[in-house]
Inverse folding.
């Protein structure tokens, strides 16, 4: 049943998301080609000046557009989730002969897949635009980023960054779905507004909690060493560990709450 | 599942559903046998849709017990219950052909060939998106998806209210064809005259309570009235 639910989620979303996925690399490619054109035309010429202005404008608006498309994809995933449970389509979804946890798992798996693909395409698009702007820009930016964690091997920094980003985005997906479930349970009217409220409150609370825990941990760890580099390494790893553990705990809590709502509490009145 | 020949199709005991402090259903106790077509009748707000939704698993009871063929409401009962809501639930981006594929994927008792045949009989365009169809045609598609299942229980919430008279006759014929000794039908409707010819039993609901119940044949024998006339008598404004 899970495979079938996942498949129909894919069918439902592909006609909206695939065009958006195509737009991102197209914009990036246009910027890249414009950059190549700027490179071959003499900068002092009128055409060169015009192309430079056009390129700068294109880079700016393309970057904004790609960011907006990424955000729109997240909103589309949320709205799709809301529609399939809390609107008339819920009369179809909630009478399927599957448990609520299976329905939720299918939604999360589908959302994580589409969201993950969107992230990869967005990142590659930005890298393409940056490479077009300057072939050394990406390398310089990478070196600056690696230097923020001195003493930590570059490979470890990159892997932990990727892990953190994936965990954070997965957490945001779960928080969004959890907020929609909770709002659907609590509010009979204005549940979308309620979901936005719950999402913002939970994110704020999570940020504060994470910062507090990291500060407390650093207070205890700081006396362990007088070496600033070692302190930097300890700080890096402890922040990562706290962040990942907190994310995991919140994901489990929201998961259990969502399954409970879908299986025991939801009323489609 | 063990033999369920003598087991009631639907069994409620003290079933209650509150919306805040308002009782939509107030300690309903009833038993609907297998093989019968039961008409669920009552004025607006009497609790008909609430009862149907509780059986379909869309609502959670506030109190009481509810089961279908002895099973508590859950995935097992949803596999044997075919529910027709009064609103269109099929996603608007689907075509009727895609809807057939969807139902075939999730319901083992769904007869895709029969569904396609019924849609062609009703002249429903199979490759047009649901959003492009008229309201009445959407309702026909939804009804066909439900009636193409070989379910143990059909829950039909206002199945004939929004369709033309010719389609109404087709729907009533389809409901009659779905009748078999091993299945049951629970129909909620305001068009009592059309349902009277196919219903075996009736339930009158008002303010969440059962005010009267019995067999349709018994109404004629005992009162000399039709079911429609009895309804107007009982719920006179």
């Amino acid at each position: 049943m899970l495979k079938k639910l996942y498949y129909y989620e894919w069918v439902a979303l592909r006609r909206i998301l695939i065009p958006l996925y195509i737009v991102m690399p197209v914009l990036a490619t246009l910027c890249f080609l414009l950059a190549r054109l700027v490179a071959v035309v003499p900068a002092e010429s009128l055409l060169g000046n015009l192309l430079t202005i056009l390129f700068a404008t294109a880079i700016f608006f393309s970057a904004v557009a790609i960011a907006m498309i990424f955000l729109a994809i997240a909103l589309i995933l949320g709205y799709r989730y809301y529609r399939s449970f809390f609107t008339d389509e819920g009369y179809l979804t909630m009478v399927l002969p599957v448990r609520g946890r299976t329905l939720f798992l299918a939604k999360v798996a589908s959302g994580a897949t589409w969201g993950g693909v969107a992230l990869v395409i967005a990142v590659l698009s930005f890298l393409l635009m940056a490479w077009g702007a300057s072939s050394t820009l990406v390398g310089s930016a990478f070196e600056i980023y690696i230097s923020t964690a001195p003493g930590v091997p570059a490979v470890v920094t990159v892997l932990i960054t990727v892990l953190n980003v994936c965990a954070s985005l997965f957490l945001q997906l779960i928080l969004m779905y959890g907020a929609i479930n909770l709002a659907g349970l609590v509010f009979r009217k204005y549940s979308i507004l309620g979901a936005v409220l719950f999402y913002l409150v939970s994110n704020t609370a999570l940020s504060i909690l994470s910062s507090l825990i990291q500060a407390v941990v650093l207070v205890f760890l700081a006396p362990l060493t007088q070496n600033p580099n070692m302190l930097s390494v300890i700080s890096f790893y402890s922040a990562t560990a706290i962040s990942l553990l907190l994310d995991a705990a919140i994901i489990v809590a929201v998961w259990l709450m969502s399954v409970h709502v879908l299986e025991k509490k939801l009323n489609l009145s | 599942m063990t033999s369920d020949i003598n087991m009631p199709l639907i069994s409620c005991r003290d079933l209650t559903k509150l919306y805040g402090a308002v009782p939509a259903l107030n300690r309903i106790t009833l038993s609907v046998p297998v093989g019968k077509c039961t008409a669920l009748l009552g004025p607006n707000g009497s609790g008909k849709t609430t009862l149907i939704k509780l059986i379909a698993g869309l609502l959670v009871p506030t109190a009481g017990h509810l089961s279908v063929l002895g099973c508590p409401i859950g995935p097992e009962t949803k596999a044997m219950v075919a529910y027709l809501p009064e609103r269109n639930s099929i996603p608007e981006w689907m075509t009727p052909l895609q809807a057939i594929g969807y139902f075939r994927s999730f319901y083992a008792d769904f007869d895709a060939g029969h569904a396609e045949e019924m849609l062609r009989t009703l002249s429903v365009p199979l490759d047009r998106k649901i959003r492009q169809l008229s309201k009445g045609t959407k309702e026909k598609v939804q009804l066909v998806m439900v009636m193409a299942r070989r379910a143990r229980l059909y829950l039909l919430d206002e199945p004939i209210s929004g369709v033309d008279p010719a389609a109404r006759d087709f729907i009533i014929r389809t409901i009659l064809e779905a009748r078999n000794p091993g299945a049951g039908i629970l129909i909620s409707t305001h068009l009592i005259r059309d349902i009277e010819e196919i219903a075996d039993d009736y339930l009158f609901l008002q303010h969440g309570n059962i005010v009267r119940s019995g067999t349709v044949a018994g109404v004629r024998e005992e009162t000399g009235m039709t079911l429609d006339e009895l309804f107007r008598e009982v719920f006179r404004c």
Notes: The interface with chain B takes residues 1, 4, 7-8, 11-12, 15, 88-92, 94-99, 264-269 of chain A (CB under 8 Å). Residues 156 and 213 of chain A are 23 Å apart (CA to CA).
